[in-house]
Structures are given as C-alpha cells and as structure tokens.
Known about the structure:
Layout: H1 8-24, H2 31-46, H3 55-73, E1 83-88, H4 94-106, E2 111-116, H5 125-132, H6 148-153, E3 156-160, E4 173-176, H7 187-207
Parallel strand pairs: 1-2, 1-3, 3-4
GO molecular function: arsenate reductase (thioredoxin) activity
EC number: 1.20.4.4
Protein name: Arsenate reductase ArsC
Amino acid sequence: MTDTQLDTSQRLSLRIAASNLTKEFAGTFNEKTVDRFLVTSYDQFAGRATITRFLPLMAERFARQRLRALAKVEGHHDDGLPTVLFLCVHNAGRSQMAMGFFQHLAGDRAVAWSGGSEPGERVNAAAVAAMAERGIDISAEFPKPWTDETVRAADVVISMGCGDACPIFPGKRYEEWVLEDPAGKSVDAVRPVRDEIERRVRALLDELAVPART
C-alpha cells in the first residue's frame, strides 16, 4: 500500500488508527512497529475487498489483535488468560461461530481469535443468522488470515478443515474439529453445525477451567 493509492477519507482514517494504536501500545511498541503492523494489516484486506470504506477500521482491529499477540509472545504483556485460536479455510463460518460462542460464554475470563488459510470476502450470512438465534451477534466480524504471532501467542489451536494449510508450531496444543462446512447452506442446515460447535466450545472451556455463562 502506498499513500497515493488511498483516497482522502482512507488516509485520514488510517492516520487516526495509527494514532489510536500508538497511544494504546505506548511503552510496548514504538511508532515504527505500530505503523508496520497497520500497513501490513491493511494490505491483507485491500487486494480482495469489494467494499473499501471499512478497510481502515478492519486494518486497525486486525493490527490491534496482532500487536496484542506479539506483546504476549515477546513477554511484554501476559494477563494469564487462556488464549484459543480457531482456524478454518475461509474464516467465514465454523471458526467465526466458534469464536462467537467462546467469547460469549467465557466473557473476559479467556481470549479467542480466529483466522483462515484462504480468507473469504465476508462472514457466511447463514452462520450470522444461526448465531443470532442464540443471541450472539457475529455480523461485525470479518474474515482474516492467521499470522505467526497469533499462532505463537495461542495456548490452544483448533483447526476445522484447513488440513496441511494450518500452521504448526512446537509446544502448542492442537485439536482438529471435524465439522461440516456451512458454505452454501441454508440456516436450517447450519443449525446442527452451530449446535455441535457450541457443545465442543463448552467442553473446551471445561478443560481450560474457564467458567462458562449459563
């Protein structure tokens, strides 16, 4: 990404994002590191986005996640909370529903991230609708790739169908959840997948000794 490729609104939004992140990570990362993560995060989405007005916000959110992960990996900050990374191919259905359930049930007692080996353009609409039936809103989420720092910072990595494309780092706890892909399916067809994901997330929280909301 170069500055000349951005319109005035995007440049302003990215400058605001950079300022927000620089303040948030002051004392942990310098401005140069923050800018690098913001730019590379933006580039992850810019090449495949069909609607560009949300790109700066997506880049800021993704850069924030990556910087928090890096801070944990490098020992700058570790709150001791269990961190789980949910991975699937497009990060549009299964991994998004799993993260949604995990965040809803765990609250601030654990951390969940998600990613994909080949991120799609948007979260599956049937998955969004199925989760909404359970009172969980994942409509503001967006597909994103996994990165080295998020994998390294995770205590548990749950993969769902990404096979050899999923990253392997020594010393991590890995699990493969065999679940039907919701892509192209109706809400009726997605509900059984959603319910199985909830069951597995609840079991995972029990194993991590994280109390789940009732």
